[in-house]
Every structure is written in C-alpha cells, then in structure tokens.
C-alpha cells in the first residue's frame, strides 16, 4: 500500500511537469503563428503601398489616343523656351514658347505660307480670362486652339502669336503661316493676340512689353516691314477686340494707323 501510495505520489508529481511542458509548447506554437501572421500582414501591406505608389506615379493617359500627356508645371518649361535676341530690350532676349512645349495639336491640314515682309500687324485679345503664370497661360492657349478647331472649324489656332500676362510669347501659327484672325488681312499681317479681355482694363506691363518686343523682333528678322502699319482688330471686323481700354492705348504705339 505504501508502495502504491509512493507511486501515486510520484505520478502526481510528474503530471504537473508534463502539463507544464505541453503548455510551454503551445505557447511557442502560438507565438510562432502570431509572428508569422504579423510578418505576412506586414509584407501584404508593403505590397499594397508599393502598387499604389507605382500607380500614382504614372502620368495620366489620354483615353482617346492612349498617349501619355502631362502639362508642364510652372517653372519647369524654361529649358524648352526659344530665346530670340532683340536690340531694344533690357535683357536682350524675348521668351517664346514653341508649339511643342505647349503641346499643340497638329494642324488639321497645312495652311498657306506668307510672303515677307508683311505690311501689317493686327492686335487682338482672346476675350478670355487673363493668365499670370506659364502653366495657366499654356492651359488657355491649348483651350483656344481646341475652340478654334472644334467650334470654328479652322485648321489650327487662328493667331500668329499669343502674349500672356506672364510676359511670355506663345507661338501660334508663327511667322511663316497664314493665320485666321481678320478676314482680308490674314495673308498680309501678323496677328498678335493678348490673352485676356481688355474692355475696361489693360494688359499687364510685362504683357505690353513682350508684345512690343515681338513686333520689333519680327522687323529684325525681316518678317514684318520696317514701315508696317499697326491696326486693332476692331478696325477690320465688327468686334470689340482688343477691348476699348487696350484700343485707346494702342493709339499711342509706334506705327499706329487710323485707317488701313
């Protein structure tokens, strides 16, 4: 009996040891599973973040054409500027943004060329908002081109050049291609449109200065006659362009002509 009691006591002492050992193993397994879940969750979260980051970094795509297109941000388009020298500017340079830089649509079909030097310069306004940064001006130039092509049915943007409130010139049809801005004068004039509406206010000082620089550059390049006549759009067509306020100022510019 004593032997059985001792054996029972030994068994009773051994059982807690076995239970403790089993509990420890369960705790280890639970810890391993927990850590494995944490690792897998972390890896999955990192993968999701990586995919989202890659998707956000892709440039927007034009659904119609399937091509990537991103507007230049203000301050990032200067390497694409075409710089032309002039004789009467403080910096000696006029900044002209070419068609490629402002992401112009291709012309629907080629227009006629011009015979230089041209005897007229016609000043217009776009009758739109004014822009004060390069990015904003590019947006308006592109909108103007779309309107001229899609609503007016023209081959391209109508103006030879546009001048923004940022003091930068934006190439339209350029020096050598016939424009679509004043009936009867498209073949013999350069059409310069100032971005904005100038019925009661004037273009910015930088805008006015750049416009004068552009005309002087045209004379210097032989595109505009040294004896050119400066005309407002309203003198040639039934329109308010370039706005009453600007029209009065134009009368004080060199080469202003009361009549064509």
Automatic annotation (TrEMBL):
Annotated Polar residues bias: 77-86
Task: List all membrane-crossing ranges.
Answer: 37-58
Name recorded for this polypeptide: Putative peptidoglycan recognition protein LE2
Family the UniProt entry places it in: Belongs to the N-acetylmuramoyl-L-alanine amidase 2 family.
Q: Which organism is it from?
A: Reticulitermes speratus
Q: What are the protein's UniProt keywords?
A: Immunity, Innate immunity, Membrane, Transmembrane, Transmembrane helix
Q: Does the keyword Repeat apply?
A: no
The biological processes this protein is annotated with in GO are: innate immune response; peptidoglycan catabolic process
| Single GO MF annotation | N-acetylmuramoyl-L-alanine amidase activity
Residue ranges of domain Peptidoglycan recognition protein family in the record: 94-237
